[in-house]
Amino acid sequence: MNTVYDRHETRDSQSWIVAAGRGAMRLSWHTIRLPILTLLVLMEPLVCWLLSLAAILGVLTALFWELFSPRSHFPFWTVLAISVGIGMLQIPYYVLVRLFSKR
Predict the structure, then answer these.
(1) Which of 52, 63, 65, 78 fits a 20 to 30 Å CA distance from 34?
(2) Domain of 57?
């Protein structure tokens, strides 16, 4: 026969196990998250500079070949779209930084 005391004791022991599991998961998340966040933050100036440089050079290359090329089959819009896409790669980078910086 189960008494109120027995059910309360079982619930307390299960809640302790759940709390310990949550604590272990939180510790493992912080163990993974902090080194990745540190690397992302340290690499941010270099990554953003390289992506911006590649985007600007792509746009300038597309404009140069469009204006000064004697051939008319240069893929201007494709090169321009790729350059803008490279520039927009900063958005997922900042999303990753934000994801790993949350608690």
Answers:
(1) 52
(2) 32-101
